[in-house]
Design brief:
This is Dihydrofolate reductase family protein. It comes from Nocardioides panacisoli. It holds the Pfam family RibD_C. The chain is α/β, with parallel strands linked by helices and about 210 residues long. It has one domain (about 5-80, about 140-210): Dihydrofolate Reductase, subunit A. The protein is built from six helices and eleven strands. The structure holds NADP nicotinamide-adenine-dinucleotide phosphate. NADP nicotinamide-adenine-dinucleotide phosphate binds near residues 9, 130 and 155.
């Protein structure tokens, strides 16, 4: 059976996965870029931005796990676009013509629309479905490979709460956001189903992995 994986999901010390006030100008609301500097300083992160360089140390070793073995992604409507994107028939996500997913990508939304084929192997499909139903569809699309839960915060929380995640990597950024979308609410005792490891890297980021026991 293919695995369900989460990678590079950044949270603040106080447990927020995004800030308050998401908009077209600020995909992470008042958090700005403060959750992900660790990732965009790595070779993997620079490549995602179409740039050269970047560190090849421990942060890069974690970040680079994002792609290998993944055959599909599931994401939430608020990761796909800013509030109101469903009213824009031309909205195709934040990522330009060649998004960094390169697989079928399933967007959970209560307002589905026809699929959109992008360059580079990404096709966005829109689903109004439970996490279990969406996972069954994504597994089909993944062709035997693993399925990544790409965020945002509430979708990650929902898949964890439903017990559907086999491996999760969280990057705890050394910042206090104070407000935004909370990741851990309703997940009391999550660690009891997983082997948990953590390591803090030179960037001050604590990487925490949950691997199903
Ligand atoms: N920290 C990180 O590493 C990271 C990673 C990725 C994204 N993010 C950030 O996370 C934020 C988005 O997170 P979020 O919690 O606000 O939203 P989200 O998880 O992206 O999406 C939630 C929305 O998806 C739709 N949805 C979810 N489950 C559904 C289901 N079962 N069936 C149908 N529709 C469903 C609903 O939208 P509708 O009812 O409107 O259709 C729901 O309001 C953004 O700011 C993004 O930039 C952070």
């Amino acid at each position: 059976m293919s695995l369900v994986r989460i990678h590079n999901f950044s949270v603040s010390l106080d447990g927020f996965g995004t800030g308050e006030g998401q908009s077209l100008e600020s995909p992470f609301g008042h958090a700005g870029q403060r959750l992900h500097p660790w990732m965009f300083a790595t070779r993997f992160g620079r490549e995602m931005l179409g740039q050269e360089g970047g560190g090849r140390g421990a942060d890069d070793a974690f970040a680079a796990q994002f792609m290998p073995g993944i055959g599909a992604e599931i994401m939430g409507a608020n990761k796909f676009g800013p509030p109101g994107w469903q009213d824009d028939a031309d909205w195709k996500g934040w990522w330009g013509p060649n998004p960094p997913f390169h697989t079928p990508t399933y967007v959970l939304t209560h307002r589905p629309r026809p699929s959109i084929e992008m360059e580079g192997g990404t096709t966005f499909h829109f689903l109004d479905a439970t996490p279990e139903e969406a996972l069954a569809v994504a597994r089909e699309g993944a062709g035997g490979l693993d399925v990544r839960i790409g965020g945002g915060v509430s979708v990650v929380r929902d898949f964890l709460a439903a017990g559907l995640v086999d491996h999760a990597h969280f990057a705890v950024a050394p910042i206090v956001l104070g407000r935004g979308e909370r990741l851990w609410d309703g997940l009391e005792g999550l660690e009891s189903s997983y082997d948990v490891e953590s390591v803090t890297t030179a960037s001050g980021t604590t990487h925490v992995t949950f691997t199903r026991s």
